[in-house]
Amino acid sequence: MKDINEMSDHELLMELVEEKRRNDKIRYIKYGIYAVLALIVIILCIKYIPMIVDMVNRYNALMEQLEQTNTSINQLVDSVGEDTGAKLKELVDSIYSLLRRFGINY
């Protein structure tokens, strides 16, 4: 490349035109790369977003079932009183005595 002071007007103009073409090519290549990356991101979103939504829905359903189970356990615990343990012990003792009558010892 010549010194700018030694170039004629025509040579300077041609140099500017070449520089513009080079910059245009680089810009078009960048646009192409951006388009390919955007396409890849769109394809990945199309592929994985339904899977993520399904996973979140299943998680929410599981949490709802867990909450219902927790509520049921709390109700069961609240319904069990002090006399329930004694009644349960009497029931087990009755079953053991019945089994002993048939010759089964535990």
Secondary structure: elements and pairs:
Elements: H1 9-79, H2 82-101
Characterise the protein shown here:
The structure is a single chain. The longest helix is centred in the middle third of the chain and has 71 residues, at 9-79. The termini are far apart. The protein has 106 residues and is an all-alpha fold. The model has no long low-confidence stretch (mean pLDDT 88). It has helices spanning 9-79, 82-101.
Count of distinct strands: 0
Assign a percent range to the helix content.
over 70%
Q: Helix segment count?
A: 2
Shape: rod-shaped
Mean pLDDT: 88
Distance between the termini: 106 Å
Strand content: under 5%
Order of helices and strands: HH
Q: Rounded to an integer, what's the Rg over CA atoms?
A: 41 Å
User: Which sheet architecture does the biggest sheet show?
Assistant: none
Strand-pairing-aware structural class: mainly alpha
Q: Which regions contain 5 or more consecutive residues with pLDDT less than 50?
A: none
